[in-house]
C-alpha cells in the first residue's frame, strides 16, 4: 500500500459486489481494485476487462497471498474461513453480513480480528445511512421509549437490481453452491440444537434479511436485548417481542412480501413524540432513509419529515473503511456486533415452540 491508496481484493464477485462494492472501490480515490476472485472464471474475466484488473483468481488463498492486496472484501455465501485466512495474512477485512452462520464460528473470527490490530468491519450499510443517523439523533431527544417497533417485509429486489448491468455466472457446477448451503445448514442445525433444528429456514431469514434490522436496533438501543416471546408465522415470517433497558418492549416482525415498494422501518414511540425511520430499497443509490417526527407543538400536534441527505449508504461505508485504515478511525460496525446479532438470532429461534428436524 502506498500512503493513500489501498489495494482491495474482492472475493465473491456476484450481485452485491457488482451492484454496490466494485463501483465504489473503483471510484473512490482511497482505493484501487487490486485483484478479483470468484469460482466463476467467466465472471472474473468479464469484470477484469471491465475494471482493468489483471490479477484474477479462482482460489481465494491465492488472492490473499497477492502482495498488492492490502484489504479484502468478502462477498461470498460463507465467510468464516476466508475472513480467518485474510486476517492471518495481515489483510484488513470488510465482510458482508451476516458475519457467519453461527455464534460458534463467529466467536473466533471476532477474537482473531481484535488480536490482529487490523481493521475488520461488517457491511451493515444501513448504519451508515444518513437518514438513520438523523433518526438516531432525534430518538435520543424523546426520552425513554414506551415501545419500539422494527419491521422488515422487504419488497421486490428484481426491479431495483435491473437498474444495473450484472454479469451472471454460467460456469459454476450446480452442486458447488448446493454443497456450501447444505454445509451451512448442518452447522446451523447443530447451533440451534435438536429441539429447534427445524427452524433453519426462519433462522436464515433472520440472518440474510433480519440481521440488518438487529444491527439497526443495536445501533439505536445497544446489544442487551432480551427475548420475551417469539413465534413463527408460516415458513417465511416471524414475530418476536424483545425487551431493552428497564422493560421497554420491542416488536420485531420480519418476513418476505413481494411489494413494489420497500417495507422496512424502525418506529419509536416516546411519551409525547414518535420517530420513524423508513428505509429505502438498498439498491436505490442516493436514497437515504426518510425520518418522520410526530411531536407536540404549541398549536397541538405536528408531523414533519426531516430533510434527508442525498448519499449512498454503501459509499459511505467504504469511505469509513478508508478512514479506519488510513487515519486510525474505529470501525463503527466491528465484527463483535455481528456476533451480538447472531447470538440474538439464536435466542429468538430458541424462544419459539420446539421444532425438531
Ligand atoms: N448489504 C446488503 O444489503 C447485501 C445485499 C445482498 C447480499 N449481501 C450479502 O453479500 C453476500 C453475497 O451475496 P450476493 O447476493 O452477492 O450473492 P451471489 O450469489 O450473487 O454472489 C456470491 C458470489 O460468490 C462466489 N463464490 C462463492 N463461493 C466462493 C469461493 N469460495 N471463492 C470465491 N468466490 C465464491 C459465487 O460464485 C458468486 O459469484 C452474502 O453474504 C449476502 O448476505 C448483502
Give an overview in words.
With 357 residues, the protein is α/β, with parallel strands linked by helices. It has 2 domains: 6-124 and 315-333, NAD(P)-binding Rossmann-like Domain (Rossmann fold, 3-Layer(aba) Sandwich); 127-311 and 341-350, Dihydrodipicolinate Reductase, domain 2 (2-Layer Sandwich). Helices cover 39% and strands 24% of the residues. It contains 11 helices and 14 strands. The strands form 2 sheets. The chain has an 8-stranded mixed sheet with strand order 8-9-10-7-11-12-13-14. The chain has a 6-stranded parallel sheet with strand order 3-2-1-4-5-6, sandwiched between helices. Strand 11 (263-269) and strand 12 (274-278) form a beta hairpin. Helix 4 packs parallel to helix 5 and helix 9 (200-221) crosses helix 11 (335-350). It binds nicotinamide-adenine-dinucleotide. It holds the Pfam family GFO_IDH_MocA. GO terms for molecular function: nucleotide binding. Residues 206-352 form the Gfo/Idh/MocA-like oxidoreductase C-terminal domain.
